[in-house]
Design goal:
Oligomer: single chain
Largest sheet: 6 strands, antiparallel
Number of domains: 1
Helix content: 40-55%
Number of strands: 8
Strand order of the largest sheet: 1-4-5-6-7-8
Length: 223
């Protein structure tokens, strides 16, 4: 009996040590699948919209640019150019906290109160928050919506940006800076750790994911 108890004790210690790693790897696999799927869904919706509405360089951006700042035209813009090609519905779920890499909390709701945020949800349980200013609109995705952990770079990502002061096409935020040598991969990692809704946006976490071949490398800042 004593030997059995000792064996069970050893097994318990081993399981306790290895279980967090197993769970972490599983979560990365799930998040990888979800990110690839939502990225393809948004990208395909954009291509279908271009096919029907013409090149995005000629889209009606003034509905989100009026007044030189954020306004409720984000909803109208989304409904005109993206909603017909996405299986997302307007979501009443709008207020929750996002945990940044450094442990600080940022409330999503201030973006909504500014009139810049529009929340939608798809049948898979993902939420998108679309927000804009006088330069761009960003598709922020929460892979499991109100469910935890709500951590930037883990289940909350800026997937795609539409920069109407640039070439007016859909792009992965910050990826061009890496491709042109203005930033390095190390910069992406540090930026992923620091960016939050309070001081920017967590776009570089998804950029790092894309740059690494649509996967989470071992040094990805997964908290």
């Amino acid at each position: 009996m004593a030997e059995v108890l000792i064996t069970l004790g050893i097994l318990g210690v081993v399981i306790a040590m290895t279980l967090p790693s197993i769970i972490g790897k599983y979560q990365k696999v799930v998040s990888t699948t979800q990110l690839k799927k939502i990225y393809n869904v948004i990208s395909n919706a954009y291509l279908m919209s271009v096919e029907e509405n013409g090149e995005s360089t000629g889209w009606f951006y003034t509905m989100v640019q009026e007044g030189g700042g954020p306004n409720t035209g984000v909803k109208d813009f989304y409904n005109m150019y993206f909603a017909p090609y996405l299986n997302f519905k307007e979501s009443a779920y709008k207020k929750y906290k996002i945990h940044n890499f450094n442990g600080d909390d940022t409330k999503i709701e201030p973006q909504q109160n500014l009139g810049a945020g529009y929340f939608v949800r798809n049948p898979d349980g993902m939420c998108m928050i679309l927000w804009a200013n006088n330069q761009f609109m960003v598709f922020t995705v929460d892979l499991n919506c109100e469910k935890s952990p709500n951590i930037v770079g883990k289940d909350v990502f800026d997937i795609i940006g539409l920069y109407w002061l640039g070439d007016k096409t859909l792009v992965v935020p910050w990826l061009s800076y890496i491709q042109t040598g203005k930033r390095t991969r190390a910069d992406l990692i540090e930026s992923c750790k620091s960016h939050s809704f309070a001081n920017g946006f967590p776009g570089t976490c998804f950029t790092l994911f894309v740059y690494d071949g649509m996967e989470f490398k071992k040094d990805y800042p997964w908290r």
